[in-house]
Protein 1
Amino acid sequence: MSAQLNLKDIKDKIKPLQLKIKQFFGKTTDFCRKMHDKSLLLANEAGKKIVEIGISANAVSIFGFVIGLFAINFLSLEKYGYALICIIINRVFDALDGAIARNSKVTDFGVFLDASLDYMFYAGVIFGFALANPEQNAIAASFLLFAFAAAACSLLAYAVISYKNNFHQDLKIGQSPFYLGGLAQGFETLVALLVLCVVPSLFMQIAIVLGVLSLVKAFSVIVTAYYNFVIAQRGKKE
């Protein structure tokens, strides 16, 4: 009887804590969405002005990528503050190139270039953290790169078959290799990179989480492909 009472007391004490956690995550989600919406508006306004100047989206993509590559060097030297600045600049330019394209003309090559440089940038950052502390980070970085490649290859294969079959279904997964449609598109990935630059000792833990999310993304693409390329096709034939 006393054990049952103790269990009830524990549950009663946990309930307020669960409610506070739920409220915290709800407020955090709302805040992230609002910040994301505001950043899109700012990027769009900046994109309009850049278009008027005559700078192309592809030029902005390439310049932002080059700046992002410097992060690898700074990470290898354990100069995390400089790496942080390079990562932020890269992400700002990544937002700007999309805004420029939307306010001028979206091209197939521009979409290809933006996605390709994004994947190379993220892989480079992972490599940079491995160089910073090989003994501590190498295994976690290898796992993350494995998961990263799995997500990238599954998306690439899906895109190839979709183009071949002239499908128009949207997978609704963003360009970031870790994006699963969470709080605010690629916001979680950016936060993870910023946190790693501030607290690099957490690389192993965060890399494992991001790696698992990338693998989940890869398998979700496989499930989507099976539905679109097998089940949906059977329905059309019937």
Protein 2
Amino acid sequence: MMRQSTVQTTGTRARRRVWGSAAALIVCVAGCETINNVTASVTDTVKDAVTPPPPGKREVDVYAGEPDVRVRIAKSQREAAVSGPQRFVVRAVAGSRSAVRPASLPGPLMIVSGDRGVVMREATGKEMSFGFGVDVEVLASDGTPDGAAEAAGESIYLAGKAYPGFLTIRPSWNDTPAQFDVTVSMPVEAYLPGVLSKELIKDWPRQAFEAQAVAARTYALQERSRARREGRTSDVEDSTADQVFGGTSNLVVAVEATRATRGMVLTDNGKLIRAYFSSTCGGRAASAAETWPMKSGREFNKAGPLQGQPRTIACQRAPLYRWTVVRPLDDVTARLRAFGRGKKPEMATLGRLRTIQPATRNSVQRPNSYTIADSAGHEYTLTAEELREALNWPLTGFPPITRDNRIHSGDFEVLIYGTEVRFAGRGFGHGVGLCQWCAKGMADSGMDWRSMIEQFYPGATVIKLY
């Protein structure tokens, strides 16, 4: 019998503001394209206005309005070409010890960094330097002589890709000042269409996009909250390390789904949940508490709505609902040993692989962990996600990991015969929370996003945060 979920919805609009943070393995469903050219107004007044909740207050009670989010879009760059608006405002990050006044510069700009500090080079060759140790912001603006931002509302292009917000250039001053990271700051509602258009297939039903919007918003804000508490300079990555972000998007269904669910987030006991999602559950949802290590600071993985429970399954049409991979036994053994050298020293001397068997399962019979036995009679236990990582470990001298030979999830049965290993698996991704292909199937059957959320995060409460 299907267990009834208990997602609650409150019509009370939260009057304060929250922030999120963290990292997770999240899978982009398919070759989803990013469509540019929609602009978003971002002024220099978009700042962090949140403080940790005082005693007796819930995390969700600290939001005063729509929060911003800082997305790292480039790492260890030696130069960056910025274009789009006719003029830019460039200025030192607030709090920097810089005597350089903000300035309005004509675009395009080439940005470099080094012992001289951050240098902005105009097309004419004219340069402006901010000095060693100073991080710099770049804003799209009509510009005025003193560099005041006028909220031009234009996307900024970095390496040919449009972004709705302003850029921050942060060199590695204490290590390699000639290299810098780039983050883009924007309102979270301007960020979401660029996530949805990369995480889902563009012609999927709107309800699937709406459910994804609620999950992606909640995840981003929960991660943002952690980042701010920990003093990090960015909130989320633009990759599967968090959730894929493709920059400015004018995909209509993504924009409409974001607007239709504006401010809607998922909570448990007054806290934002870490609303994980992945491509395909394969018919069995995973449990967060068993999927990732429960070390200090990650207690959020214990939240009830994130534990695998019986629910409606609708991802049967997913390309990887069921899959089979066959690999040479020597290949599998070598990758397990290499993983041991990198992460599990006790496995570095693993003998020839003999068996891989599920050790524990969750309430829907998805494996939480596996026992690995070798020819010497030694046994080792790995979580399902650790084993997936180990089996896909890159190794010189062996075939590269591709779609054809990748172990796509941590839910599989293993048969070793002769010199080959056969993996019969289910799904694609970690399997916790929202299943994107299930969302597509549920939407095809007429289910709305709230009903989907009840299935994916049973027991969570939906609130309008701002």
Protein 3
Amino acid sequence: MPSLVPVTSVRLGEHLPLLELLPSDSPVSWVRGGDGLVGWGTYAKTTVRGADRFDQARKWWHKQLETFSVSNAVQTSGTGPILFTSFSFDPNEESVLLIPKIIVGMRNGNSWITWIGNGAQPELLEKKENVKSNHFSWGEGSISSTDWQGRVADAIKEISDSSLEKVVLARDLTITATDEIDPREILRRLSAEYPSTWTFAVDGLVGATPELLLRLSRGMVTSRVLAGTISKTGDDEKDLALAASLARSSKDLEEHEYAVRSVGDALEPFCASTNVPESPFVLHLANVMHLATDVTGALIESKRDIDSFSILEKLHPSAAVCGTPTNAAAQVIAKIEGMSRGRYAGPVGWIDARGDGELGLALRCGQITKNVIRIFAGCGIVSGSNPEKELLESNAKFAPMRSALE
């Protein structure tokens, strides 16, 4: 019988600037406000696809866990062996599962390190090397702005002609750089500009999402729903007035209600009790404001087999990235959107050996392939939508990645 591979987690204690530790070799990240996890070096990696991809992912992760001998002196969520995941939006596209060799975590001022293998505890060095200046050429995406507005009009017609209540349409832009794109500089800029978002990187997909799809920790589940958006002006007084108008907008409240309902319905079978606030709050980001609702629940204690994979299977795709009803919206997306989303709008984050984890929706992000990055934005279309306004909203949602590159 082959010997087990050691996995060791120990406390570091000190406050660490996580994103400054990342080398250029396969960096992975899930960081918010300085807390979270970063990792590098690839111990194991695979891809899954198909309607059962969450179950395939669970089986692969459990098979890996059987080969480990874990020594965990920290014993908190996010310690021990960690799986970073980046699932596709469409089940027929490729999802990525990755186990880093080295992981460093921070929570509430306490830090730890986990490493795989027989070697001594890795030394941590802040990666302050200069990043080469890069020049970017901005191109069109899979669909021109004019054509995309036409597809929004088509979606509005689909809604008026059927039982469809909402459909999310996405668009992309392709940017070419003079040199290979370094994800670390993008992560640092996103983290500095958007500290309340989760800054992520998995296998070339980098971004900063404001939307937490799932946090599972010791029997408690949380999901932050965002739907309904308005751009900020930078003038505090005007923005307060805009926030108030967003909170009263029937179009945005309708879109938000669909998204909250889909998450509440998905969590209900797993939970002994759920808390769904009656009305949303307005989440202020650097470039936009969103209607937001935090849905929480306590898992049914007798159901011992509930883990992040089983909940993800029911949560994705939510109304926030697909529409309502989900199946009908997915069919309309396949019919009129006209592009591959890849891992945009899919679940991204991490899962530990207990099945606990934190995963967001891969929004405000881009997929890097050497010196090319493809960035994405999506808008929820309802009966009261206007194609020109939706185009403006999508441009506002490109802003985080635009500024991180520029």
Protein 4
Amino acid sequence: MTASTATAQPIHFWHGLRASASIMIGYAPMAFSFGVVAVQAGLSPWQALLVSVIVFAGAAQFILVSLIAAGAGFGTVLSAVLLLNVRHLFYGPALVAQLKTAPRRWTPWLAWGLTDEVFATAMSASSQGRLAPAWCTGLGIGAYSAWVGGTAAGAWLGAGIGDSGGWLASALEFVLPALFIALLAQAFQRSLWPVVAVSMVSALLALIWLPVHLAMVIGMLSGALIRPWLGRLGASS
């Protein structure tokens, strides 16, 4: 293996942690926003922090807090969070297929740290070669640390801001979607345009009859089903 190849395919935990810097920059303000929202919804700072420590699910945490504030039951809250995050059932196998070796002792950490942005970053890095489980773990832990730390800051500062801080949470809501779009653009390939188009159209059509989280699943399934067909079509042409 040449020096350039080794550089292009980092394998160490610390390399993954360093690669998570762009995700951490986006996560910190978004998590801060969640901390503010959670406290304003009636949770204590410690409860808000505990949600991020245990759930670590981005948008699902905002929905969770909103449902709790609205007085929803445990079953409703749990089912909503699970349905919103069912897409991770697709992320896991896709990431494992890009690993150099079986994750083994890294498996729990890989699963726990797998978010939309971590997945997008890992898939982008996989274009340079197979990924090391230790590198992926560092990537996920960096993202997790930023999310938990941002929540802590927002929760304790949000407790002192009061209702006047609602504008701050609203102003920060764009950060996470913008981060994901930027990461996706880095990994984008022209050959994926048909997949993106089919996924987008399917999701938009599904929105006519279904809630957002189910429409997202429909879009993902449509894209996943069309991709192998496009591959066979390209090979035969």
